[in-house]
Each structure stands twice: as structure tokens, then as C-alpha cells.
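User:
I study polymers; will you set down one protein's sequence and C-alpha cells?

Assistant:
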Amino acid sequence: MAVKTVQAIINGVTTTLSLNSTTGKYEATITAPTTSSYNNNDGHYYPVMIKATDQAGNVTTKDDTDTTLGAALRLRVKEKVAPLITITSPTASARLTNNKPQIAFTVTDADSGVNPDTIKITIGSTVITTGITKTATSDGKGYTCTYTPTTALADGSNTIKVDASDYDGNSASQKSVTFIVDTVPPTLSVTSPASDLVTNQAACTVTGKTNDATSSPCKVTIKLNSGTAQEVTVNADGTFSKALTLVAGANTIIVVSTDSAGKSSTVTRTVTLDQVAPVIRAVTITPNPVDASKTCVISVEVTD
């Protein structure tokens, strides 16, 4: 009895094959499913069923479970879209005072899914594949990841890179971010007024210099007593000055330099303004009169 039809059923789609008179085989060109077969089953393939019907209506089917032909009836489909990496922390050009900052990023893939074993971080020349916390996204195809360096990063510019691939072997475009680590506060010197200065001049000029090797320029504020801290201009060479008017008695001057990373240094000066002249209250000379070429004692009572 002659064969009437031969059909292939893949992912719910039935295709009728035509007899090739040259080869004697039934053939058809089919379009593969639009999604990867990786998540279709544990074998990562689409089962193919072949259904042959003769003119009498007898039907024979073969599928992926067949002991002889089963291996040939497994269609593996691979996607070509790579995963997407997004680094959320640190941000580009950030200035951090923590030299062990948490690195946070996501890796997503809409089809076969991200292979967690391919996720890696590169810090400088060090490649990290272990110690990364990987939490599956809600669709189960991606990961939200965090990693905290076990070794402190060096002060200055640091670059981290993240790589990952999906289960079909598509590598994501590497993502990187460069940021600054600054754990050292700025240098700050106050050249005037001198510490514990006592003066009769109400006008007082605060001068000094500040610098930070990693996070210049620095911002300088000066506060007099209980007043508001005022920002002063810092010159290109780090010098600064600010004219103040002292009040009678003890004055507290607080100078603060803050670098771009938020680290700060503080210098405090105490200056006493005394504009009241001393009072001479009494003078005695003993003996008085005194013999020529002899000594006498002068005693003066002075208050201030």
C-alpha cells in the first residue's frame, strides 16, 4: 500500500512533507520555533513527531522517546540575543570613602536565560567568580547580583567590569564602571591666626592652605563662635583667606576643609580680643628716700 502523507509536528505546528523523487525521501523546509529550546525540557530540545499515513489509513508515529530514532527527533534551537548587563552601584565617576564598596548589578535575558556560572567580575587584573550573591529575577531568567570586595581597593581610580553569557552561549557586551576611592581626608594648615593668640585688634584674617591628592578641589568653610559657617574661596594652589571681626573675650574659629569625596579635616583656633588697658592702682618705693648708690624696691599694683 502506498504512503499517503508524511507529517512532522514540532512545538504544536504540523508540516506536511513532500516526496523528493530523486532521493526517495519525504522532505520539507520548516521554520524553527522563535524561542530557544533550552527551557523546553530537561534535555533542552523540542520533541519532533513524525506521522506517516498510508492510503488505507494506517498510521505510524515516531517521536523522541523511540529507542531507535528518538535521538534524531530532538530539535535543538538556540537564540542569538545576548543577555543585558546593568551596573547599578557604584555609579560612574562616584567618589567613595569606603574602600570595600558593594558592587551591585543585574543580568537579564528574555529567552534561554542567564547561565549563572558565567557571571564574573573583574577588578583591576583580578577576576572574581566566587562570592558573588546571585538572586534570580521574577521571570527566573536573570539575576540580581551583589559582591563586596574582600581586599580593600586602592585609593584613586578603580574600574570594575562585569561579564555573563546565556545558556545558548551568547556573551553579553561587557559592562564597566570607573569610580574614585578616597579614604584619606584633605590636608589642612592654618597659618594665621596663631594658636591661643591674644590681641587688641578686632580685625582678624584667617589664612591657610588645603589640598587632597585624590579628590581635589576642596571646599573650605570658616565659622566664628556661634555664627554660621561661611564658605570661602579656595585658590588654585589651595590657599584661602577670610577676614573676621572678633568680639571681646575668647573667640573660637573653626576651619573645615571637605574634599569631593566628603572626607573632611578640621582646625580650631582660639583668639582672645582684649582692648581694655591695664590699671595702675598703687606704687610704693622702699626705702624712700634712699642713700646714693643704695638699692630700693619699687612695688606696683596693676590690674587688667
